[in-house]
Every structure is written in structure tokens, then in C-alpha cells.
Amino acid sequence: MVGPPKTLQDLRRVEGAVRVTCRACKAVKQHDLEELIIDRRFRRLSMEWEAVRRTMPCRKCDSTDTRVDGVPFGQDDVERRARRSRALLMNLALAVLDDASRRARDEDVCVPATRLALRVLRPYLPDRELLVTFWTAAETGRGKPHGPALQAMRWIVTKLVDAGHPVWAEFR
Q1: Does residue 49 contact residue 7 with C-beta atoms inside 8 Å?
Q2: DSSP string, 14-71
Q3: Neighbouring residues of 149: CB distance < 8 A, sequence distance ≥ 6
Q4: Residue 156 contacts residue 128 (beta carbons within 8 Å)
Q5: Per residue in 122-169, pLDDT tens?
Q6: How far apart are CA 88 and CA 91, in angstroms?
Q7: Among the three residues 20, 47, 74, which one is the final residue of a domain in this structure?
Q8: Furthest C-alpha separation in the chain
């Protein structure tokens, strides 16, 4: 990332955090970036960096007279390694499902590897409906020209992206 971030999502590239320093009470709070993004999205607040800098209140005294900084590599090593391993595990499961969805119209892909990939993705999705949809599409989609498993795979990726999970670009 060259220069200041334009949005909160830009801080993901440097695994950043957001530090808020209150000018009134001198309190300092470092926010986890993902939790801040989820909170601002829930409250329908802007993700633009300048808007974040103007509107972040102090958690102690609720003053808006604050200084907001992006802190690159703001997580500790244990937290960063855990986040990377979860992202890697999720994306490897997506790679298995992507391969299975592309082969589903030509051959049977309802094998243990596909089942394991679906089980790995279960904690990242709000419900299991899409996973069941993928499995049934893979079972019944053999020989169909427009693979229903491929469509189910796209739905899974869309749901993961909407939930804020770090999905690799080749699946988007």
C-alpha cells in the first residue's frame, strides 16, 4: 500500500489495526480491523478512511475530538498466524470445491475430499443450506451442460465475501 489508505479495507493488505487517541481524556484504544469493519457495516457507516477519521468516538468519554491512525501489522504474531491459517484453510477448501464443481458434469465428485471441504467451510457460513445445495447439485448435475454445482459454488463464495472473509481473488 503506497500512501494513506482510502478505505478501511485497504488496511487489510498490511494486516493493520486502527488506533484511536482521545485528545480530551488521553485514552488510547486499538481496534481490531475486522471487528471495526463489521461494526461500521452493521451501523451503515462509511468505510472511507477520511469519514472514519472524522467520526470515530472515544470509547471512554464519547468525545469525537480524536486522532485516528492506521497501525500496520497491528495484530500480535499469534493472532496474525491464527487468522492466516484460518484464511488458508478456508481457501484450500474452496479450491477443492472449485475443482469438484468444474468436474461435476463429467464425473462423480461426491467423494470424501469434497465432503471434507464442505465440513471445513461450515463454520464460516451462517447456515448449512448452501453446503447441502452444493452436495445435491454435485450428485444430480452429472451430464448437465450448465453445471448446477458451479452455480452453488458461486453462491458459497458470494456468501463468504459478504460475511467479510478473506476469499482469494480467483474464486470471486
Answers
A1: yes
A2: GT-EEEEEETTT--EEEEEHHHHHHHHHHTT---BHHHHHHHPPPTTT--S-EEEEEE
A3: 100, 101, 104, 105, 109, 134, 137, 138, 141
A4: no
A5: 999 988 999 999 999 999 888 787 789 999 999 999 999 888 888 876
A6: 5
A7: 74
A8: 68
Number of residues written out for the chain: 172
Grid coordinates standing for 167?
476469499
Distance (Å, rounded) from C-alpha 28 to C-alpha 58? 8
Provide the domain limits for residue 89: 78-171
Provide Rg for the chain, Cα atoms.
Answer: 20
Q: Which stretches of the chain drop beneath a pLDDT of 70?
A: 1-2, 74-77, 80, 169
CB of 56 closer than 8 Å to CB of 33: no
22 and 87 co-located in one domain: no
Number of domains in the chain: 2
Give whole-number Cα distances, 84 to 60, 66, 89, 155, in Å: 31, 31, 9, 23
Whether residue 19 contacts residue 59, with contact meaning beta carbons closer than 8 Å, is answered with no
Q: In Å, what is the CA distance from 70 to each residue of 5, 148, 157?
A: 8, 43, 29
CB-based burial label for 3 (10 Å; 0-12, 13-18, 19+): exposed
